[in-house]
């Protein structure tokens, strides 16, 4: 494959940018969700749900980008080089990043970090589940 896959550092910075921008926008649009998150993290279900929805919906509507990835010029693609679909993003964000991470007490998240760092194709657990990868634009 002649593509340049995004490094762990670039993906991590994109995730931090997303979290930061999403937090500010959420506070302005949904102050009740952020307030519950700040007051007691166990009550932050609404904020977490909104963040998962953001991570799932925006790349489908924006051609593989979310805000952080767009700023850093990386995007989510399917391994067949097509644009991501609802199925890809639900498998990636909901199942791969959240449900499985929750069921494994975060172990798959840690494993994913090492996969991105050491695998030649830089694909994490959620990428393998969804048939995606993250590449430089």
TrEMBL record:
Bilayer-spanning residue ranges: 12-34, 46-68, 99-118
Q: Which Pfam families does the record cross-reference, listed alphabetically?
A: RDD
RDD domain residues are 6-131
Q: Which controlled-vocabulary keywords does the entry list?
A: Cell membrane, Membrane, Transmembrane, Transmembrane helix
Taxonomy, superkingdom? Bacteria
* Intracellular or extracellular location(s): Cell membrane
Give start-end of the signal peptide: none
One GO cellular component term of this record is: plasma membrane
The way it spans or sits in the membrane comes to: Multi-pass membrane protein
State whether keyword Transmembrane applies. yes
Q: What is this protein called?
A: Putative RDD family membrane protein YckC
Species of the source: Paraliobacillus ryukyuensis
Q: What is the lineage of its organism?
A: Bacteria, Bacillati, Bacillota, Bacilli, Bacillales
């Amino acid at each position: 494959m002649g593509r340049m896959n995004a490094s762990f550092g670039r993906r991590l910075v994109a995730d931090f940018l997303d979290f930061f921008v999403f937090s500010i926008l959420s506070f302005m649009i949904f102050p009740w969700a952020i307030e519950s998150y700040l007051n007691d993290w166990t009550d932050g279900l609404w904020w977490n749900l909104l963040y998962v929805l953001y991570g799932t919906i925006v790349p489908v509507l924006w051609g593989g980008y979310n805000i952080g990835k767009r700023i850093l010029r990386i995007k989510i693609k399917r391994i067949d080089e097509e644009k991501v679909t609802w199925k890809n993003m639900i498998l990636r964000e909901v199942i791969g990043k959240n449900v499985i991470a929750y069921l494994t007490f975060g172990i798959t998240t840690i494993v994913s970090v090492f996969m991105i760092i050491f695998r030649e194709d830089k694909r994490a657990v959620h990428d393998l589940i969804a048939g995606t990868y993250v590449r430089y634009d």
